[in-house]
Amino acid sequence: MTATRLGAGRYSSTIEGPDGVATSVHELGTSDDAKVTGVLRVPRGATTVVTIMHPRQDVTHHPLVPYLLTMGYGVWTQATRSPNNDLNLLHEQAIIDFAAGHVFLRDNGFGVYSLGHSGGGTLAAFYCQQAALPPDQRLASTPSGRPVPLAGTAMPLPDGCIFLAPHPGQGALLQRLIDPSVVDESDPLSVDPDLDPFNPGNGFRPAPQSSSYDEAFITRYRAAQQDRVRRLDAQAREHVSDAQEANRAFKSGGDAADRRRALAPRLMTVFRTDADLRNVDLSLDPNDRPYGSLFGRRPDLTNYGLVGFGRLSTAGAWLSTWSALSTNATFLDCAPGVTVPTLLLEFTGDQASYPTDITAMSGALAASDLTVQSVAGTHFGGPVTKGAATGTSLAAQRIESWLKAHV
């Protein structure tokens, strides 16, 4: 029996890239003196580069890379300063990292198109929103109050944006996934049976049967999800306040004990975040998705495991990234700031972004040149049915047609 490894099988298999591609690795400095790394791949004669970036994942080997290279476009894959690490992921810093890559590519004479897949879509929308503002109107701090120098950051807009299976943002997505039946944040097994999504009395059916929740339970469940996020926000803000008070005491008195108190990690552990009712009740927001979530075929089990969004973070990262009530990085809030030519591409079997999301996103995007299309595929570009074409290959065809019409 082969052991299952964290992240195994996330993306579908892909094609081989073309020969003659120049590949280089670059370390870039950001406007706030951080360092980020990107990989630039350029086919012979390419003058346009497609960027791929995600706030929390290393996308160096994203399956669309060889397709884009075969089309004749360069590809820039970049990490934030927090790759594969949610611990201190601040979206306001992530778009400063995003800016460093765009400045580098513009300085080297490339046309630039941004491709945001999944959470990378909201990151790109957030960047475009802030980049389009006069510098003095950009955000000056994170939701926890940490200053960010967006006003002093060069933020060139891309020539166009491609949003592939964008979910509503890390915080908005987590609020859909968070299990509201947790009654004790220190106990991963604590449960209120009246809110337990995997209680047969509430409508759950064992896999692979589709569950069936009634409207009254769904309404109570979603309100309770928001209530849990609100409680976690209060906890995060208390942590932030404690650290700020200790810092003020150190500045006024110089006592090293106060400085230690300010620096002491105040980490938030958030259990059970794989509990979106739509992953087990396929009648809700229906599309072609299979039973199961982004993390596995048995959400009733994976919900209790290590994998899942927002499992461990600082208070500042919780408020900036994982709280739907506090984050600045929500797709629908940022979309009115996206005015460059845009392709919004849906996977019809998506387990994280649903038809109602795509409709709302297409209505919110401000681009006058907006193309909205869909292809068969699951969230990470797999096939909807065994033996069918992968979502990645079908998306590549649509992306190529759109780029040919715009570059």
Short description:
This protein has 407 residues and is an alpha/beta fold. It has helices at residues 65-71, 91-107, 119-131, 170-177, 215-253, 256-263, 299-302, 315-322, 331-334, 355-364, 391-406, and strands at 22-29, 35-42, 48-53, 74-78, 111-117, 160-164, 267-269, 312-314, 342-349, 370-378.
Layout: helices, strands, pairs:
Layout: E1 22-29, E2 35-42, E3 48-53, H1 65-71, E4 74-78, H2 91-107, E5 111-117, H3 119-131, E6 160-164, H4 170-177, H5 215-253, H6 256-263, E7 267-269, H7 299-302, E8 312-314, H8 315-322, H9 331-334, E9 342-349, H10 355-364, E10 370-378, H11 391-406
Parallel strand pairs: 3-4, 3-5, 5-6, 6-9, 9-10
Antiparallel strand pairs: 1-2, 2-4, 7-8
Helix pairs in contact: 2-3, 5-6, 5-8
Account of the protein in words:
With 407 residues, the chain is an alpha/beta fold. It is 33% helix and 15% strand. The chain has 11 helices and 10 strands. The protein has an 8-stranded mixed β-sheet, sandwiched between helices. A two-stranded antiparallel sheet has the order 7-8. A hairpin with a 5-residue loop joins strand 1 and strand 2. Helix 2 packs across helix 3 (119-131), helix 5 packs antiparallel against helix 6 and helix 5 (215-253) crosses helix 8 (315-322). It is globular.
